[in-house]
Design a protein that fits this description.
Pfam family, one: HATPase_c
GO molecular function, one term: phosphorelay sensor kinase activity
Distance between the termini: 88 Å
Function: Involved in the transmission of sensory signals from the chemoreceptors to the flagellar motors. CheA is autophosphorylated; it can transfer its phosphate group to either CheB or CheY.
CATH superfamily of the largest domain: HPT domain
Number of strands: 35
Number of domains: 6
Enzyme class: transferase
Structural class: alpha+beta
Protein name: Chemotaxis protein CheA
Largest sheet: 7 strands, mixed
CATH architecture of the largest domain: Up-down Bundle
CATH topology of the largest domain: Four Helix Bundle (Hemerythrin (Met), subunit A)
Strand content: 25-35%
Shape: globular
CATH class of the largest domain: Mainly Alpha
Length: about 800
């Protein structure tokens, strides 16, 4: 019986979640017979089941709602808003009873009869009004028949979530075992047959991991399910008219991610309705439609889910936000003077800041967007605002697809290894860096980085272990706190970055407040995952970020900058440690191996729908077995862009301007000493020149195909795309224009008399002509034209001419 009861509660709760939107839609269109029938069938099913399970309160509530809805189905009338509100109240009570039954708690029934009486009263009033002769929409039963003939639901199996988690844990163990096997195979040397079998095993494990990961996925419909009801209730409470639009409900994301985004999204929607969208009178005065627009959408972008909330309300008054931030002490007048408009807008995320004009039951109590951002960033997400005063506000939330596997950094403190989500780390420096100054003020550590002072804490102090003695500088990690204000977390060293498999930690561990779970890296040794926000709270850090204006400090910083510059240190694929100016590096990202392409001795990296040049190709022996991504430096000189594949990024360091120039070669400008090690410095000028020169050389050597008739549809829609896909530069000219030297002229056979150029593939400035005929068979023995649908012959002729040019 317990199993049947649990099944009944689970199915009833799922149906209630889905039916909330049905009721809201029925209120908007009371003549929709299909939705009325769907609602009736729910109460009918609940009534029948709870009689068998001995649930009298369920039975009384559902029976009353069934009677009222049955009258509407057979009486040809439509339900009025008051009756629909009463039905929603009954559904809410059934939901409360489900929670009570599931938890084993008791729920007082003193209001059950009141709900039933209210429902019947609303129904009687509606019936009396209809006898008075008020017109009602005619409802044909055809809609119900069509609904009953709807396609059957897909077959499903209900599984406990713990079982799915166990499956995922098992696959994660297989991944770790595979990684250990890979290390042993590398130690034994390459064995082609064994390597091939290992690759097949890796592919099977990857497929299994992806498949099981999908069982954790849920449609975003689950996230949006409560929004229509909330919009309905709030708009009525606040006297506003709101048109709601929802898109992208079929997008899928991890079930844990759905649960963690529900609260922030609910808060954002409430804010939009309360002090974003104006009242009908205010909208009329502003020349807007009385009904405000609120649109929610979701879509997948790479490995992230993007959720957007857009309204056409009043937007955010940036000046008012700045004034409240100044009054709250979140910023100073001096800081405000240096802020951009976007940074001023982002002050709405500061603690205690609200854009509400007065405190209401809905919002305006100063606990809002700071908590929303903290919750979003805690799961590795990012939130951003775009405001147009008087026209509306757009809020964009980017979150990972799943929390099960996240990119993370492995670090060491007190001789122990820990992990931290990469999204929580803003910057990593060494305490020996000239741009860093560590001091103790009033018993608390602070670190000043580029004239900004942050609170600082040693991780060893938080976890209660002695600081291990090791040579070399300590690593200072600038991380985000729960309030959004960063602080410095000092550790022995940051070792590497990995894709981390996240698992829940024991309750006694989580009770410490500084861990977000545990993970198993490639070496198979369990590590605890640090919670950056929790560490700040447990350590009671005074979270401030102050600008240091001391003249002496500024002069010292200027002297240090004059003698050095920040650079990104990295390990080449060939093993050398090098550094490049940080200002040239736009970003560092992992690119799938299959997107690094080599053709004709030149390497390119596919970024989106673009091919970005690379200074050198990536050989197969430079990529570890089983690796799926290559770390790339995205380098830009303001005009040109290139992707620089590397083995790993080490750190950001200050590189002295003076270097050993005797070691200059290729793209290396010279040698410097960093932390006692020799590091080669990349010459940005030589690097960009090499890539630019290779591109220019390739472009100069490339055959240019000139098509004589741009107005011909076949030339424009079929021939030109074929040539461009094959990598040729396609140009157009009129028949009376001469071709440039080295070009290949493509004409139809009927145009040959108008072409004043000899046949041939000569490399010495001769103009080659390729004639294309419309018929498969040649006109005779002397016909040297090519059938225009003979792809191999056409591309072969172009390749032959290209080869002659290259040999020349």
């Amino acid at each position: 019986m317990d199993e049947l009861l649990s099944e009944f509660v689970a199915e009833t709760q799922e149906s209630l979640e889905a039916l909330t939107n049905v009721v809201v839609a029925l209120e908007a269109d009371p003549s929709d017979r299909a939705r009325l029938d769907q609602l009736f069938r729910f109460f009918h099913t609940v009534k029948g089941s709870c009689g068998f399970l001995n649930l009298p309160r369920f039975e009384r509530l559902s029976h009353a709602a069934e009677d009222v809805l049955s009258d509407y189905r057979t009486g040809g009338a439509v339900p009025d808003p008051a009756t629909i509100s009463a039905v929603l109240a009954v559904m809410d009570r059934i939901g409360e009873l489900c929670v009570a039954v599931d938890s084993g708690d008791s729920l007082p029934d003193r209001n059950d009869e009141h709900l039933i009486a209210t429902l019947r009263h609303c129904h009687e009033v509606a019936r009396a009004t209809r006898e008075e002769g008020k017109a009602r929409a005619d409802m044909s039963p055809a809609g119900g028949d069509a609904a009953s003939r709807a396609a059957p639901a897909s077959r499903t199996v209900r599984l406990p979530l713990v079982l799915i988690d166990q499956l995922m844990n098992g696959v994660s163990d297989m991944v770790l075992a595979r990684n250990e096997l890979a290390r042993k195979l590398r130690a034994q040397g390459r064995q082609p047959e064994t390597d091939a079998a290992f690759e097949r095993l890796s592919a099977c494990i990857a497929d299994m991991r992806d498949t099981i990961s999908k069982t954790r996925m849920q449609r975003v419909d689950r996230l949006f399910m409560a929004i229509p009801r909330m919009v309905r209730d709030l708009s009525r409470e606040l006297g506003k008219t709101i048109a709601l639009g929802i898109e992208g409900g079929d997008v899928e994301m991890d079930r844990e991610m759905v649960e963690m985004v529900i609260d922030p999204l609910t808060h954002i929607v409430r804010n939009s309705i309360d002090h974003g969208i104006e009242t009908p009178a205010e909208r009329r005065a502003a020349g807007k439609p009385e009904a405000g627009s609120l649109r929610l959408s979701a879509y997948q972008s790479g490995s992230q889910i993007v959720i957007e909330v857009v309204d056409d309300g009043r937007g955010i008054d940036v000046d008012a936000v700045v004034a409240k931030a100044l009054a709250a002490g979140a910023v100073s007048e001096r800081d405000v003077a240096r802020l951009s408009e976007q940074e001023k807008l982002d002050l709405v995320f500061a603690p205690g800041i609200t854009t509400a004009r007065q405190v209401t039951a809905v919002s305006g109590r100063g606990v809002g967007m700071d908590i929303v951002r903290a919750n979003i960033e805690r799961i590795g997400g990012v939130i951003s605002l775009t405001s147009e005063p008087g026209r509306g506000l757009a809020i964009s939330i980017r979150v990972p697809l799943t929390l099960t596997i996240i990119p993370g950094l492995v670090l060491n403190a007190g001789g122990l290894n820990f992990a931290i989500p990469r999204s929580a780390v803003i910057e990593i420096l060494h305490d020996s860096n000239p741009a860093v100054s560590v001091a103790r003020l009033g018993g608390a550590l602070t670190a000043t980085i580029r004239d900004t002072r942050y609170s600082m804490i040693d991780l060893e102090e938080v976890i209660g272990v002695p600081m291990a003695q090791r040579p070399g500088p300590r690593s200072l990690m600038l991380v985000r706190s729960a309030s959004g204000i960063p602080y410095i977390l000092a550790v022995s060293q940051v070792e590497n970055h990995e894709e981390l498999v996240i698992r829940p930690a024991a309750p006694v561990v989580m009770a410490a407040g500084i861990y977000a779970g545990m993970t198993l890296p490639d070496n198979g040794q369990p590590m605890l995952l640090l919670d950056a926000g929790g560490i700040a709270q447990v350590a009671r850090l005074p979270l401030v970020a102050e600008t240091v204006d001391a003249g002496a400090a500024r002069e010292d910083a200027a002297d240090r900058r004059a003698a050095s510059y920040p650079s990104l240190r990295f390990i080449e694929l060939t093993g050398e440690e090098r550094a490049i100016r940080l200002s040239l590096v736009e970003r560092v990202e992992d690119v799938p191996v299959e997107q690094v392409l080599t053709s004709g001795g030149h390497c390119r990296v596919r970024i989106g729908d673009r091919l970005v040049p690379s200074p050198h190709p990536v050989r197969a022996d430079q990529v570890p077995p089983g690796a799926r991504v290559v770390t790339c430096l995205r380098i830009r000189d303001g005009v040109r862009e290139l992707c620089y594949p590397v083995h790993a990024v080490v750190d950001i360091s200050e590189v002295p301007v003076e270097m050993d120039l005797s070691a200059r070669y290729g793209i290396v400008a010279g040698l410097v000493l960093i932390d006692g090690r020799q590091v080669e410095v990349v010459d940005g000028f030589a690097l960009m020149a090499a890539v630019d020169g290779a591109a220019a050389e390739e472009a100069a050597r490339q055959v240019r195909c000139v098509i004589a008739d741009a107005d011909d549809m076949w030339n424009r829609e079929i021939l030109a795309p074929l040539l461009m896909q094959a990598g040729y530069d396609v140009r157009w000219r009129r028949q009376d224009e001469p071709a440039d030297e080295g070009d290949v002229l493509l004409v139809t056979a009927g145009e040959q008399d108008a072409v004043a150029a000899p046949d041939g593939n000569g490399p010495d400035g001769e103009k080659a002509v390729i004639r294309l005929r419309a018929h498969a068979a040649p006109a005779g023995p002397a016909d040297t034209s090519i059938y225009r649908y003979d792809r191999e012959a056409l591309l072969g002729a172009l390749s032959s001419f290209d080869g002659e040019r290259r040999r020349a």
